[in-house]
Amino acid sequence: LLQQSNMAAPPRALPFALYILCVTASLGSGQVPRGVPPEKAPLYVPGSPFTCFNGERTIPFTSINDDFCDCEDGSDEPGTSACGRGVFYCENKLAKSLHIPNYRVNDGVCDCCDASDEYGTGKCQNDCEEVGRALREAMEKARIMTEAAVKVRKQYEAEGLAKRAELQQKINELATEKDRLQALLDEANGHKEQAEKPEKEAKDKADNEWNEKLTTMKDAAIKKLFSLLDKDQSGGISSEELQHHNELDKDQDGTVTKEEAEELLDLDGDGALNETEANVGEDHFKEHLFEQIKEKFKEHGVVVDETKPEYEESINHIIAAAEEARKKAQEAQNAKQEADRQHDDHSKQLGHDWGPNNEFAHMLNNCYSADANEYTYTVCPFGKATQTKKSGGGDTNLGNFKGFTGKKDKYSEMKFEGGLKCWNGPQRSMTVTLICGGEVAVKDVKEPSMCEYTMTMTTPARCSLDQIEIHDEL
Predict the structure, then answer these.
(1) Residue predicted with more confidence, 27 or 166
(2) Judging by beta carbons within 10 Å of its beta carbon (0-12, 13-18, 19+), is residue 326 exposed, middle or buried?
(3) What is the torsional sign of CA 271, 272, 275, 279?
(4) Alpha carbon separation from 453 to 379, 381, 445 (Å, rounded)
(5) CA–CA distances in Å: residue 421 to residues 4, 396, 398, 431, 453
(6) Do the beta carbons of residue 455 and residue 151 sit within 8 Å?
(7) Is beta strand 452-459 parallel, antiparallel or unpaired with respect to 429-436?
(8) How far apart are CA 466 and CA 355, in angstroms?
(9) What is the Cα 307 distance to its own chain's centre?
(10) If 0-12 CB within 10 Å is exposed, 13-18 middle and 19+ buried, where does residue 391 land?
(11) How do residues 352-388 score in pLDDT, each as one tens digit?
């Protein structure tokens, strides 16, 4: 029988009679060989020679599934593990069909719910009815969730369309308002300039008068103290003359010594008195010595009160008018800046890609968070992504929103780049994968590479009725 069938010897672990039964069943009249998927069944014609998929050779049909690898690509052994590089098809009636590597056939592990992959070991039983029931229940729940999510998505789209129109209207209104506020600002600045001119003139006049008066008083005080110290009125102050003034007694022993007096006059600190220091004239005294010792002679009236007096009432009225004009000009500038800010913010929001039907507009100005290990991760679409320690501390910037960057489906992914640079590493970044879900929520956060983070987020904006899988076999 082996020779007639051109079959290899049966595996030692498989009883001979059972092996023959299995091969006969797989090659029975009109049957598709075990492990062949429906789409490839036309390539296996019972009774006809079989050509390997790669075209390398043609073999008798009886050599299919004979547990001997005739084809390099393994296409002659779809139902055995002889080649180990083919694919085994599990029909899994009442459940979902499955394709597995054929090296897992008869390995003692139940891969197919219909037990077809373990026909030789007999270790598995057909539980596809139970598996199919659970699968159908899960699919029904997914269908209900998806249908509800699609309704939410349509609501997002309607709200996004309205939001776009609303923002455009606000931008148009703000453009007009900016022109109006600019005119008011120009007018207010004109009034301010008109009010500040007499204010400056009045203040300058009063200040100059005070400065002149102060200079006169200080010069008088300097002359007075110089005259007091210049005992012989020679026009110069010597160390001997300073010794007569106990106010200069540095060590408070009741006597001004020659050393103490010379120390005061030794302005260059070289330990010796030069000609100028030995006999200090009034100009030198004014420039170098007066400020140093005037407080010691306070009782002699040589300390001038330099407190600037209040302006006269007439000047205060002029100042008040100028301050009021400045206040109004500042208010006008603040109003204009606020209009500019709002106009720029609205324009920036409107410039974002909200999806093909505005379905992502609901994420504007919203943030979503999730905890992972010792951190809380927050992502603000159209804004930035951050990482915060649960134990406290500031936020770490993981990147700013760069846009939707999915390869096959643009809106399946958001990218955040340019975050805080890692020590001895790259700038932090985050990739957010968007999948269908009944609500907007962060489901998973990882750091697969140093300072490169990934996040999975569910949102109804990614749901469509096309995602509801319907299997004919179910």
Answers:
(1) 166
(2) middle
(3) positive
(4) 11, 15, 7
(5) 73, 10, 9, 16, 13
(6) no
(7) parallel
(8) 18
(9) 54
(10) exposed
(11) 999 999 999 999 999 999 999 899 999 999 999 999 9
pLDDT tens string 416-472: 999 999 988 899 999 999 999 999 999 899 999 999 999 999 999 999 888 665 433
Token pair belonging to 17: 């009679």
Burial (CB count <10 Å: 0-12, 13-18, 19+), residue 213: exposed
The string of pLDDT tens digits covering residues 288-319 is 999 999 999 999 888 889 999 999 999 999 99
Q: What is the 3-state secondary structure (H, E, C) of the chain?
A: CHHHHCCCCCCCCCCHHHHHHHHHHHCCCCCCCCCCCHHHHHHCCCCCCEECCCCCCEECHHHCCCCCCCCCCCCCCCCCCCCCCCEEEECCCCCCCEEEEHHHCCCCCCCCCCCHHHCCCCCCCCCHHHHHHHHHHHHHHHHHHHHHHHHHHHHHHHHHHHHHHHHHHHHHHHHHHHHHHHHHHHHHHHHHHHHHHHHHHHHHHHHHHHHHHHHHHHHHHHHHHHHHHCCCCCCCECHHHHCCCHHHCCCCCCCCCHHHHHHHHCCCCCCCCCHHHHCECHHHHHHHHHHHHHHHHHHHCCCCCCCCCCCCHHHHHHHHHHHHHHHHHHHHHHHHHHHHHHHHHHHHHHHCCCCCCCCCHHHCCCCEEEEECCEEEEECCCCEEEEEECCCCCCEEEEEEEEECCCCCHHHEEEEECCCECCCCCECEEEEEEEECCCCEEEEEEEEECCEEEEEEEEHHHCCHHHCCCCCCC
Mean pLDDT in residue range 72-80: 93
Provide the token pair at 258.
Answer: 């020659």
Instruction: Identify residue 99 by its one-letter amino acid code.
Output: H
Interval 14-66: pLDDT, tens? 443 444 344 444 444 458 899 999 999 999 999 999 999 999 999 999 999 99
The rounded distance, in Å, linking the Cα atoms of 64 and 57 is: 13
pLDDT computed for residue 469 by the predictor: 54
**Calpha distance 135→343 (Å, rounded):** 52
Question: What's this model's pTM, rounded to 2 decimal places?
Answer: 0.62
Position of tokens 């109006």? 180
